[in-house]
Amino acid sequence: MSKIQEAIQKMTVEEMKQRLADYMAADKEWAPKPVAIEVRYRDQNAIGGSNKYDVIVLKDDDTEEVIQFGDRYSKLIYIYTLMHPKGYQRRILNKRERNFPELTSLYQNIYSMADTERLVKQATKNFDHVMNMAISFIRNAFKNKIGLEELSIGNPREYNGMVVIPAVYDGLEVILDSELAAYFSTNT
User: Fold this and answer.
1) Which of 24, 34, 77, 91 has the most crowded Cβ, counting Cβ within 10 A?
2) Distance between CA 98 and CA 120 in Å, rounded?
């Protein structure tokens, strides 16, 4: 008899049920599935700071999960990508001669009191590095989250060179705060 079988024989029914529940909770097949992703306005008085929005995954078991990004640029790029469900080419954002208008405008919208000079300086110095780091932070934010990997940035080679979020590309609902939705409709 194996060590595992011996342990099972010694367990009570309640212990077996709990172990099975823990196992199933860690199994991707049983994990709650995302039904939408929302960019929601934060109550500034409750939290403080200049970050005006949370990115929240809404799941089929009526739970929500706030995504924690590694830095401001990763959140900026993620929200920009959410606003473009069928994707975009990285090079359209690299408008150095005009100080990255799409990114700086959205950055100011997401972070009230944000100074865009640092963003412009970093992006002008090495735009590809800024994008690569942001995408890396985004992927890390989703890396160990069961059932949420498809909400990360996909491999552009699989989407004709486009930066996409696979689940959104495939039709997952995106809910933008009304202020961001208005921003998006006037800036596209």
Assistant:
1) 77
2) 10
Nearest to 96, CA basis, from 71, 124, 76: 124
Q: What is the pLDDT along the chain (188 residues), one digit of tens a residue?
A: 688 888 888 888 898 888 888 877 667 677 788 999 999 988 665 555 567 899 999 999 999 999 999 899 999 999 999 999 999 998 888 876 777 888 888 888 888 767 888 888 888 889 999 999 999 999 999 987 767 888 999 999 999 999 999 999 999 999 999 888 876 677 65
Can you tell me the distance from the alpha carbon of 7 to that of 38, in angstroms, rounded to the nearest whole number?
A: 44
Structure-token match 């200049």, residue found: 50
Cα–Cα distance measured from residue 185 to residue 128, given in angstroms and rounded to the nearest whole number: 27
CB distance 86 to 168 below 8 Å = no
